[in-house]
Write a structure and sequence with these properties.
Blueprint: E1 17-18, H1 19-24, H2 29-32, E2 37-38, E3 44-47, H3 54-63, E4 70-72, H4 73-79, E5 96-99, E6 112-114, E7 125-128, E8 131-134, H5 136-143, H6 149-162, H7 168-175, H8 179-191, H9 199-210, E9 235-237, E10 242-247, H10 254-269, E11 273-278, H11 279-284, H12 286-299
Parallel strand pairs: 5-6, 10-11
Antiparallel strand pairs: 1-3, 2-3, 4-5, 7-8, 9-10
Length: about 300
Amino acid sequence: MPHVRTLLPVQLRNRPFTVAEARRLGVTEKRLRSSDLRTPFRGVKVGTALDWTVALRAQCALLAAPDGCAVVGDDAVELHRLPTPFGARPAMDTPVSLLVPQGTTAPRRTGLSVHPHRLHPEAPLWRVAGVLVPGVEDLWAVRCADLDDESGIALGDAVLRRLKGDRTPMSAAVGRLPVDQRARATRLLSLVRYEVCSPVETRLRLLLLQAGLPPASHFAAPIPREGRAAVWPDLQWDPVRVAVEVDGPHHAQDAQHERDIRRDRLTEHHGWTQVKVSSREVMGQPADVVRWVSDALRGAGLRW
């Protein structure tokens, strides 16, 4: 006769659980060793039939940690649907990073990484996909210590966009950092910009600044369009009417291509010089991109 497994208690079938909870509900040691249960962390079980996602793994990690811990690192970034650093390993290939509340003993489990910064008692926590994570502003502030400048600014750009341009929560989050981490986070915040739609745009902006080009307009005005939403270039220099657009792979699609043609006509109609670069060129041909933008700015009369 084929082996028939004992059903788990209904409370445990569709979520992760601790071994201690299962024992209290009468689950035997033999049943806990069955092959249909995964052991992601010592003392934690979850059914193999459930999709092994970032969210499920993070839920398991919190069960292996003291109450009040929060998930940070790339797991939290992915849960918030924010951009991960260029070239970063997938979150699932790295340990789950945790913030531990002040006064709490840090857990020691294989697969868990405890962030050296302690969770500030005033830091707002969100529950995303069943996982306790810091709010986007505190997640960015904490990650500033772990990321290179470009990645920290790109993440900050995305957070500021999520906050609709309000820097106040990000400034408050910097104030909740340990004193030795505030200076760098403050510097990165000064370079964060609103209305940035992708990390490639962030890389382009920083690339041009590092090359010594004058910064794009901080409070850029849109190019007007009668009867419809205005055109917001990715970067623009208002005094000389030069705009830069970064076209990603989706711009090759027919509908998007037609919208781009109408955008380009409008930009030229209002007397702007437009430099179009692809995301592949920004990533792989930075010197060429700098030269193209420099030539356009100098051709329009800008000197630096």
